[in-house]
TrEMBL record:
A motif ('KMSKS' region) lies at residues 217-221. PANTHER family: TRYPTOPHAN--TRNA LIGASE, MITOCHONDRIAL. This is Tryptophan--tRNA ligase. A motif ('HIGH' region) lies at residues 14-22. It comes from Rhizobium paknamense. Keywords: Aminoacyl-tRNA synthetase, ATP-binding, Cytoplasm, Ligase, Nucleotide-binding, Protein biosynthesis. It catalyses: tRNA(Trp) + L-tryptophan + ATP = L-tryptophyl-tRNA(Trp) + AMP + diphosphate + H(+). Homodimer.
């Protein structure tokens, strides 16, 4: 793609209990990527205000997401772990991107439609502008790769559109600064300041569905706690939720094709495959022809085996909030230095007086 130095960036909102979807769709990928890449992982607390302004325990939620990052295996010394509000440059760049993005682009965002619901007039302006802040989160570090679940795909396409429009609109101003690089987008040569980010969505579980409804994604904000497995759930809760998970009366098929039209069965097999680091075909080779009464207990054992150590480490870390805060402060300081470098350049490109 480009000669931009590869940099991985991703964020998680402190909006409630982290669940298996967040873990399999995002956090586990964060851990895998840190081996070969420079990575920045952010608790995006400014985003948490978009759907609900007042949070009873914002500090606790931020610490809990940070604890999940660390418990899952992210190394905050080698990489950067921080919370978004410590780096005001995110909000500054988001304002500039609000002026780059077009209303027509924002109107197409399906997550806004889902989250705003029927009473759109009552949704916050922040919820509407959320993708523009997300683009700023990524591009304020000129990050190149973003591991996310499938639900974020459209926002990353918008991030590319914003980067492209900024690059094109300011092309003549970027060139004399010597800050840009030549990239090719399609067949077009572009003198770019911002890279075209690559979403990293593939993985065994890009979209984990609700345990109560196989057509809805597993979500922190689902009112039913039985719809999700939380990283803080103990083994009894995990067992209860999997036992109560919606299924159909048929036995599991022997081939992946047989999962078509059976969203709940497909979801449970997908979760098993992701937790076991196997394919769905492997799982069906083992459980094809078996009833859920056999499959569910095996899934409970596997989920507890994978999640119990993370759960225990999260609890241990949460007992030492001073340590978590120190990690965030250190990460925030390093992130601010990087973000300020970009913003100094962006201010120069735009032509603000220093
Ligand atoms: N069900 C899911 N399957 C796979 N990946 C998922 N992610 C979220 N849900 C699933 C991924 O987790 C990362 C962090 O998500 P987030 O908290 O920043 O926002 P979200 O996507 O809005 O997650 P939730 O759980 O649905 O939260 P609420 O209910 O607050 O909106 C992202 O990479 C996301 O793709």
């Amino acid at each position: 793609m480009s000669e931009f130095k590869p940099l991985v960036f991703s964020g998680v909102q402190p909006t409630g209990n982290l669940h298996l979807g967040n873990y399999l769709g995002a956090i586990r990928k964060f851990v895998a990527l840190q081996e070969k890449n420079d990575c920045m992982y952010c608790v995006v607390d400014l985003h948490a205000l978009t759907a609900q302004l007042v949070h009873e325990d914002m500090i606790g939620q931020i610490r809990s997401i940070t604890a999940a990052f660390l418990a899952a295996g992210i190394d905050p010394k080698q990489h950067i772990v921080f919370n978004q509000s410590q780096v005001p440059q995110h909000a500054e760049l988001a304002w500039i991107f609000n002026c780059v993005a077009r209303i027509g682009w924002m109107n197409r965002m399906t997550q806004f439609k889902d989250k705003a619901g029927k009473d759109r007039e009552q949704a916050s302006l922040g919820l509407y502008a959320y993708p523009s802040l997300m683009a700023a989160d990524i591009l304020v570090y000129r990050a190149t790769h973003v591991p996310v679940g499938e639900d974020q795909k459209q926002h990353l396409e918008l991030t590319r559109d914003i980067a492209m429009k900024f690059n094109m609109d300011f092309m003549e101003k970027i060139r004399p600064t010597g800050l840009g690089i030549d990239i090719t987008v399609g067949d077009e040569p572009v003198h770019a300041y911002f890279p075209m980010v690559e979403p990293l969505i593939d993985g065994p579980a890009p979209r984990v569905m609700s345990l109560k409804d196989g057509s809805k994604k597993m979500s922190k904000s689902d009112p039913s706690d039985l719809s999700r497995i939380n990283l803080m759930d103990d083994s009894d809760a995990i067992s209860k939720k999997i036992r109560k998970a919606k299924t159909d009366p048929d036995a599991l098929p022997s081939e992946v094709d047989g999962l078509k039209g059976r969203p709940e069965a497909d979801n449970l097999v997908g979760i098993f495959a992701a937790l076991a680091d196997k394919t769905k075909a492997d799982v069906l080779a083992e459980f094809g022809g078996q009833q859920f009464s056999v499959f569910k207990p095996a899934l409970v054992d596997l989920a507890v085996e994978v999640l119990a150590p993370i759960n225990a480490e999260m609890r241990r870390l949460m007992d030492d909030p001073g340590h978590i805060d120190a990690v965030l402060r250190d990460g925030g300081e390093r992130a601010r230095a990087r973000a300020e470098k970009t913003m100094t350049e962006v201010r120069d490109i735009i032509g603000f007086v220093r």
